Structures are given as C-alpha cells and as structure tokens.
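Hi C.,

You asked whether I'd gotten around to modeling the 102-residue construct. I have! Everything is below, sequence then structure, no commentary in between.
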Amino acid sequence: MILVRQEIGEVLRDFRQQKGRTLRQVASRASVALGYLSEVERGQKEASSEILASVAEALDVPISIIMREVGDRISVLEGLQTFPDVVPDDLMAEVGPELSLR
C-alpha cells in the first residue's frame, strides 16, 4: 500500500538535505516542533496543509514543487509509464495571463 504521508516525508527530507539544512534549522524556521517534523519526515505523522506550507517556506521551495515531486513519486510506485506534464486548461483559464514562472 502506498502511503502519501511517507512520500511527503521523503520528499521533505530530500529537499532539506539538498539545501544542506539540519532538521533543527528547518523546524525552527518553520515554527514546528523538532520531534514533530522528524516524525513527518519519517512518514509517521500526517502533516496539515499549514505545516506543509510552513516547512516549504522554511526550505525556500514552492509547495507546488514539493507536491509535484510527491505526485511523481507516487506515479512511479503505481507503475505508471507516463506522467501528464501540462497545466489543465480550466486552471489556465482561471489564472489567465498573470501566470508566470518564477
């Protein structure tokens, strides 16, 4: 069984390590308890959207990039051969021309 919380935890840990930051640094910057963030990274706790947003900000990584990575990892685990790599037309119509890459 694929557990989304485990994939989220692994992605958060990967980004943290890529940035060369300690668990303590990220927890402090995100205003999250060190033990709790450790449990999230190990897939033992479900992180709320607020916690994920705080950790993403502490890592200087857009939450969309984190969730994209989680989705891609789950797709691989599910055995999908191809991944859609487009923004849905209805979302583009909602956002309009002000959508820009950062």
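If it helps when you're writing up: The radius of gyration is 15 Å.

Thanks,
B.
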